[in-house]
Structures are given as C-alpha cells and as structure tokens.
C-alpha cells in the first residue's frame, strides 16, 4: 500500500518521466498539511459552533423558563400571602360571627378577583361557614369527600395545592363552570368561646396560570408546561388535546430527552410543582445546512489562499536551486566563466557560494594545468634546441684546430669570433625568443664558419626585407635548415654551390626561404622527411627539419610550420612560416 | 496540462461561488418562512357545543399558524345569501373551508353551486361529497348505543323523543337511529314535537304523572328546560339528551338529567383545521373520515378525569 502510494506520488510529481521535482514535492507537502489542518480546524470549529448555538438556545430557553417559574412562584406566593393574611389577620384573631370577618373576605376577594374564583371557609365537617361572594354551597356536594379537603386535614400546618378541577361547589360563580386550582389549609377558628378546626379554601383561577405561561414566549418549537410533584400535568399549552389523549399533528404527549429535544425542569419551592421546558434543538434546518456550506466555503477559500501561498513558497525555494542547476550544467559543459548568483534561502545561498568557490578553484586548477603544460612544452623546446649544438661545436673546433696548426691565424681569429657570436646568440641568456635580426646574424655566423670549413665549395646570399629585423622569432630555426643544405645539398658541389637565404614579410606572416641549387630530392623523399619517416640508418634523417617544424608548431600552432620543395639535381627550397609579431609581444606571451 | 489546470481553476471558482451564494445569500436557498393560511369556518346555528368546536379550531389555528375567520349561517338565510357569503370569503382569499352544516341537501346545494378550488372539510354528520376533502364528525349510532346500554337494564321500555317543531335535521338522524335500535331492542319510541320551549315544563309534568317513559332530546335548550323543570319540581324522570350548556351541566350535576351523550367538539375543531392545513400542505393524499370520541356523561362520572374533558374542555 505504502509502496503503491509512493509510486503514485513519484509518477504524479515527475515531469516528463523525470524524477519528482522539488517544487511539486514542497507544494504537495505544504498543501496536504494545510488541507488536513483545515479540515480538522473546520470540523472542530463547526462542531464548536453548533454546540455553542445549542448552548445559547438552551440558555435562552432556560432563562425564559426561569422567568416563567419566577412568575408562577410569585403568583403562588402572592396567593399564599392572601391565605396567610386571611388566616392570621382575620380567622385566627376574630370571632367568625363578627361582621368584619365577612368584610375581610369580601375585601380580599374584590382585590384579587382576577386571580381568585372563590374564597370559602369550611368547618371540619364540611359546612360552609364563610364565602367571599353571595353563593352558597350546593346541597348535593359533600365537600369532605373531596381529595383536596382530606389532604388538607391530613397535612395540618401546610398549604395544600390541588389539581386543576372545575369549580362546582358553589351556586354562584363568576363565569359558570370555570376551572380552578384549589389552595387550602387547616385553620383554627374562633366561634364564640370555642376554637375549632376548619379548612380555608381559595380557588385559584386556572386562567391566571394560563396567562402567566402564555406570557412566556419561547420559539415555535418550544413550550413550557407545569406538573405537580407526581408528574401529573397541571398546565400544558395544549392541555385539552393532551388530556383527551389525541396525538395529533406534531403534538407530543410524552416528552423524553431524545435527540434534538432538550427538557429543562425546575421545581417550584413550596408546592413541589415543576415547570418543564421542552426545546427543539438543532436538527436539519436550512439554516444549519447554510452553516455547513459556509464552513465549506471558508475551508475552500482558505485552501485556495494556501495553494497560492504554497505555490509562491515552493517557487521561492526551488527557483534558486533551478538557477543553480542551470549554472552547474553550464560549468559542466566547460564554461568556467559562468557567474553563479547565490540567492534564495540561507542553505541555498551557502550551496551557491560553495559551488562558486568550487568553480573558481577548478578554473584556477585548469590554469595551473595550462601553465604546467606550457612549462613542459618550453622544456621540450629547450631540449630540442640543445640537440643542435654539440655537432656543430665539435666540427668548428676541429676547423679552428686545423687553422691554428696550419698557422692561419687570421682565419682562425675570424672563425673564433664568429663562433663566439654564434654561441652568444645561441644562448641568448636562455631566451627562446630572439629578433629576426639576431636569427639572421646567427645563421650568417654559422655560414661564415661553414664557409671556412668547406672552403670554396659554396657561396651564400642573405636577403632580409626591411622592417622585419625587430620582429620576433623563435631562435635557431634557420641554422638547422642551412646545415642540411650545406651537408646534403652542397656535398658534391665544387665551388658553384649557392645558398640563398631570404627573409620576406608577406601580409601578416614572415617567410624564411632557404634555397640551394644542390642535388635536390625526390618527391617521396620530401614527403618522408616532412612526415618524419626517414630511415634512421640513411644519410640525413631529417631530424633537424623535424625539430624546427615541431618548435614552430608548438609556439605558433597551425598553419605555421615548414614547407619544402625539391627537384632532383635542381635544388631544394625550404620555407619557414611564422606570424609577424613584434619581439616584445612575443615575449609577453610568456613563450620566452 | 494547461487546459486541465484551467479547467480545474474554473471548477474551483465555480464551487467557491456556489458555496458563497448558497451559504451567505438567499439567491439559491431561501429560508422558508412559516406559512400562514387563511381558513374560513362556516357554521350553522351555533350553540354551546359550537363554542367548544371553535375553541378547538382556534387551538389548531395557533399550532398551524392559521388565520381563522368564522362566519355564521342563520336558519333565516336563503341559499343565495349563503352562497353570497361564501363567495365573499373566497374573494377575500380564503385558502380552506370548514363547513359545519346540519342539512346535507343545503350543503350539497351550496357546494354544487359554488365551484370551490380550495380544500373543504366538513364537520358533523358524515358526508360524501366529491369536493369535500375530509369528513370530521361523530358517530351518532354509537351515541345511541351508549344510551341503549343504560336503558336496556332498566324496566322502562317506552321512550319519548322530544323535539321542537322546528327541529334541526340532525335531530332527525338521531331519531332515526333511536328508532332502528328501539325496534331491535323491543322499545317503544314515540316522537313528541313541542310547539314551544315553554311547553317543556308541562310535558315533564305529564311524564312525571305517567312515570314509565324515558325522555330523550337532542335539543340543548329543550334539555335544559326539561332538566330545570325536573330539578325544580324534584321529579324523578329518566331524562337524557345532549348539550353542554351550564344549565344542562347544572341539571346533570343535580341529578335532574340522568345522562347526556356528548362528543369531543373541541377535538373536532382541532382536527378539522389540521385537515385543512394538511390538504394545503398536501400532506394527505386521500380523503379521510375522522370520527371523534363520544361518551355518555352522568352525574357520577361528569368529574371523572376523562369525562370531564368532554363537557369542561380546557379552552
């Protein structure tokens, strides 16, 4: 499962089959984290919101219910005060036969007739002793059989509240058969000299209770009802339907604390009655659906904002890395001059700087390698230059010895002088670069010495174009060619050999031409010499020419080098081509 | 890829817009306000029982948020006048009708000549008109049975059914039921028609002298008058009937009336208005005949928990 997920993620993050990109991975990670966090927060907030809304509804209804309870309590306490006033202020202190007793009954009745149907005083045997209005006790009513009467007598000292019933004991009522709640108590009555027990009944109008509850307005799905201590309903907003057992549209006769219905209960202190509030909570209403949609909207909006931020952040992180990757690719291709702009976050910035340092080190290393290679090349040039000196020196010294032995002092002096000048230029303080003037002078000295040695065998001519004397050249490039001409071309010449040396300035190049009229060579031999394919045992291996050719190639590169034209019995012409560069510029190249 | 991305962005914007408008405006979902209905109650010859019926209607109206308009037909009105009254109610925008009429033929005429496109619920005797949506009534046959259940054990086998000469048709139905059952049970039933209400006292005196008949009436005023006569003259006549007036209840309580057959008028009104609202909300798709409970109330049970609510409903 995890493997499959990983594969899927790799496929999804990858672009065109490549490995996953950092940009996508960061974006996805951030987004997924944000989505999960948003969902958790959203669900949590919505749950909290619902709970809070329910709690508010509950609190509001409880507050209203408490108001209802308070109103009923106040009303009942007021009625109990009426009872107390009548008992302690009148019945207990006065003889019942006194007219003031009847007046007190009338007065209280008139004061409270909106709340009271009748006030009546009964003897323990059920005889009507006093009544607030004109009515009399109906003869067929035996009041002592009534539940409230018996309950009152059995609970002396307490005020008894009965169940709602129809007022039916008296011949005159304010409004016919009206519903009342009997409130009664045992009283001690003064009748003449004796004190007797009696029952004081105050019929509380049921309509007063209805009005009290009717004034408490709850929501359309909520209502209050009143029960006695046994749970029997005293007041219910749909009392008749309730009592008749009709379970009609939406009317709930038995309320339980089921889902979405809250039931509050508050006991009224003295009576033991309970005010019960029934509240419909929550449920699937359009309002709650809209709340859900709004939470979904907020989540989606939040998610969109996060996507944009994540996209921006992931680009901020990955863009410098991308630029770094591009720069490294260019360095990889050999462009060590590529500038790496270190940017982005600290770690990327460090990485950019590190790569920059690495690139600089690499560049320096490569330059060192070039220098090292150049030094090696120079040392090879030196080795090649050094190859030419010993043979000539031995031969010249032989000539000088011969001249001294034959007492040809002047000639010996000339040769020694020429040799000294020849070596002075050859050494050139170790410099590989000399002026063309020195190179020509060098070969002139050489020719003079060789002329002494091969007396009258050849003559030579040197021509140098104007303006080339101060140009630079690598040294000792003419001498080996001239040496070949003397040793190989002039070998069989008898005084008519000519060697022409010309230094010509053509365009941007200098051409050194060494031409002889000697025996010449076949084309094949010329090719063999130029390609260095001469037999080592044959006379003239072409080492000198190869030496010159390699040196020119090493210093100036292509197309500079050595060219040779030869015709058997006609002669040979060797041309050296180098660029026309001033001596100073050539030295500045570091080739010296 | 770009096309897919754009499609995704468009979908996202659409979803966001939908959620916003659905949650924060009423453009897509409108909070349904509690519907208020206008219902007219057309009643014929109201009496005490009608008060309880009206009380039930009002209770139902509170529960179902109905604006009730009660209109009374008097016996003096002609059919044309009644039709005119009904037409006015329709013009005022009444959405439902509860008809409380005693005579089937008059009701049939009224309904046939006034095309109604609104739900009509009848109260009282069972009707079977096409354009009556539901019948809410009581079972007269059962009420008669209740009386015979008391009479059969007694020795008296003669029944005087007393009416006034201008008795209502509903009394005829009751009489017919009494008569059928009398034949079955071996009772002799005679119909006594009094010219005036004041004749009740004389009639009772006559019955007292005879002392062998059961007296029964469905006229509330007549029952009250006869009950008062019995009470005042302290006679012992098995007097039965139907009615809710204070006089009837007082006479019942005093024992002057032996029993009254009653039905739950309050619940009748409540159910009738519920049926109209049900029809308006299209909750009920078939006609319904709903009978409310009937009971025989006597002196002994009139303050019983269940019986009390028949004749002393919580209004």
Q: Which ranges of chain A are low-confidence, i.e. pLDDT below 50, for 5 or more consecutive residues?
A: 248-257
Helix content of chain B: 40-55%
Per DSSP, what share of the residues of chain B sits in E-state strands of 2 or more residues? 15-25%
Q: What proportion strand of chain A?
A: 15-25%
Strand order of the largest sheet of chain B: 2-1-3-4-5-11
User: How confident overall, as mean pLDDT of chain B?
Assistant: 85
**Outline of chain B:** elongated
Which properties best describe this structure?
heterodimer, A: 592 residues, alpha+beta, Beta-Lactamase, Heat Shock Protein 90, six-stranded antiparallel β-sheet, five-stranded mixed β-sheet, B: 315 residues, alpha/beta, six-stranded parallel β-sheet, 21% strand, elongated
Description:
The complex is a heterodimer of chains A (592) and B (315). Chain A has 592 residues and is of the alpha+beta class. Helix content of chain A is 52%, strand content 19%. In chain A, helix 7 packs parallel to helix 8 (346-405). The longest helix of chain B is centred in the N-terminal third of the chain and has 23 residues, at 2-24. Chain B starts with a helix and ends with a helix. Chain B has helices at residues 2-24, 48-64, 79-91, 104-113, 140-151, 169-185, 199-210, 220-233, 246-254, 265-280, 305-311; strands at 37-44, 66-73, 96-100, 120-124, 134-138, 158-164, 188-194, 213-217, 239-241, 259-263, 288-292, 294-297. Chain B has 315 residues and is of the alpha/beta class. Chains A and B meet through strand 4, helix 6 and helix 7 of A and helix 1, helix 2, helix 9, helix 10 and helix 11 of B.
